[in-house]
Amino acid sequence: MNNLNDQISRMNEIMRVTEGRNVDNSLNEDLINEGYWGSIAAGIVPYCDRTKRFLVGLRSGNVMEPHTWGGFGGKLDVDEGVDESIQEAAIRELSEETGYVGSIRLVKGFVFRDDAHDFQYHNFIGIVSDEFDSHLNWENDDALWLTYDKLLNLPDKHFGLNRFIKESRSLFQSLAFKTVNI
Fold first, then answer.
1. Distance CA 112, CA 167 (A)
2. Taking a C-beta distance cutoff of 8 angstroms, is the pair 24, 55 a contact?
3. For residue 52, which of 163, 157, 145 has the smallest C-alpha distance?
4. For the segment 99-117, what is each residue's pLDDT rounded down to a tens digit?
5. How many angstroms separate the CA atoms of 64 and 2, rounded?
6. For residues 22 and 181, what is the distance between their CA atoms, to the nearest angstrom?
């Protein structure tokens, strides 16, 4: 953290987000000291092969970076003794946040790394054959299926989604415009 005011602001945000939730205190310490839940996380932006649209969720007021549009993801549950791969964690998070339990094929995208804090976030596009209705949990207030152009022009995108689109632009474009089989 840059200074005491940044630390106080971050602590207040953590208290707001975790209020009334049973959250491991070591995770709160990670957030205060490093700015992340855990050390490794993964997420998915679903893509429907038939309609050529991407699914994004509007983050609720109960999470960090509230009221922004993003993918669906979170930390690996290794802190709780769960042995899961990065891909399994991404699929679990998608299911927890949207209720989706159908078939999905993951295509690896940009991996965000913050070496100073030993943190990494693995981004995937999750290819599904049909759009599905999202049954959102407390982490998201809304979900939209959007074309690539509408996704690019969507206001209030989460900084992670913006970076994923920027760093994996050719992947997004190849799916949206079906220039290659992935």
1. 9
2. no
3. 145
4. 999 999 999 999 999 999 8
5. 19
6. 44
The whole domain housing 132 covers 37-176
- Together in a domain, 150 and 63: yes
Q: Convert the pLDDT of each residue in 131-167 to its tens digit.
A: 999 999 999 999 999 999 999 999 999 999 999 999 9
The answer for residues whose C-beta is within 8 angstroms of residue 33's C-beta and 6 or more apart is: 1, 117
As a whole number of angstroms, the longest Cα–Cα distance in the chain is: 50
Contacts of 119 (CB under 8 A, 6+ apart): 34, 36, 38, 39, 40, 41, 113
**What is the CATH classification number for the domain harbouring 102?**
3.90.79.10
CA 43 to chain centre: 4
- Cα separation, 135 vs 57, in Å, equals 11
SS3 53: strand
d(CA 70, CA 82): 25
> Rounded to two decimals, what is the model's pTM?
0.81
